[in-house]
Design a protein that fits this description.
Strand order of the largest sheet: 3-2-1-4-5-7-6
Order of helices and strands: HHHEHEHEHEHEHEE
Number of strands: 7
Number of helices: 8
Largest sheet: 7 strands, mixed
Strand content: 15-25%
Helix content: 40-55%
Length: 223
């Protein structure tokens, strides 16, 4: 099924202006973004504005241990690894070796491959394994950007793995505007709508949805 037309992201001169006065993208991230943009699945890449915001947030909370659910070609994990201290670590979950081979190439070139623990298996298995091994409340930050039908399952596990005061970022919560279309009953759209409604009512976190990229919800686990 074709992805819906993007009615959320900024376009044209406005987007160009915002980037011209705010975007500070390291050269290696720019090259990875350009390579990914030529792929048929380019819509799966996060915006550079959110990548920069992620780096800022990681620095603001002094993060050293992070989780990533959905790697694709590695832009977001590279953003995280570049922002973490020398002993920082990213546990990155994906199932596609072809895409993550691109990610590894850039991680290696950037000198951060040793910071990233890539788990090529279903993310729920990795999250359950982390919980079973005593990693509850041991992570500072998590980024969820994988199959939408499992967002609620990822979130519940991640919330247990994040420390009090830790931050969870969830991508695609505006789903290219399709959350507003009552005629769209596609499974991914239904899952995003249900997840957004549930997160809005979740008293375990403080919440803000920001209209950057395809919409990102930021949830801070209450202390």
């Amino acid at each position: 099924m074709d992805r819906p037309k993007n009615r959320i992201a900024l376009h044209g001169d406005f987007a160009g202006y915002i980037r011209s006065v705010s975007l500070r993208e390291p050269e290696i991230l720019g090259r990875l973004r350009q390579e990914t943009a030529a792929m048929p699945q380019a819509h799966m890449q996060i915006s550079p504005e959110f990548g920069q915001l992620m780096r800022l947030l990681l620095n603001a909370i002094a993060a050293s241990r992070t989780l990533e659910i959905g790697v694709f070609t590695g832009y977001s994990s590279l953003c995280a690894a570049l922002a973490l201290p020398a002993d920082g670590r990213v546990v990155a979950c994906d199932v596609n070796q072809t895409w993550t081979d691109i990610a590894r190439r850039y991680w290696r070139e950037a000198g951060v491959e040793s910071k990233i623990d890539l788990r090529l298996r279903p993310a729920l298995e990795t999250l359950d394994e982390l919980l079973a091994s005593g990693r509850r409340e041991s992570f500072d930050f998590a980024f969820i950007d994988a199959d939408k039908e499992n967002y609620a399952n990822y979130y519940e596990r991640v919330l247990q793995l994040i420390r009090p005061g830790g931050l969870i970022a969830i991508d695609n919560v505006l789903w290219h505007g399709q959350v507003l279309d009552p005629e769209d009953q596609e499974s991914g759209t239904l899952a995003i709508r249900a997840f957004n409604d549930a997160l809005h009512q979740d008293s375990r976190v403080d919440l803000s949805l920001i209209p950057v990229g395809d919409g990102v919800s930021l949830a801070v686990k209450r202390r």
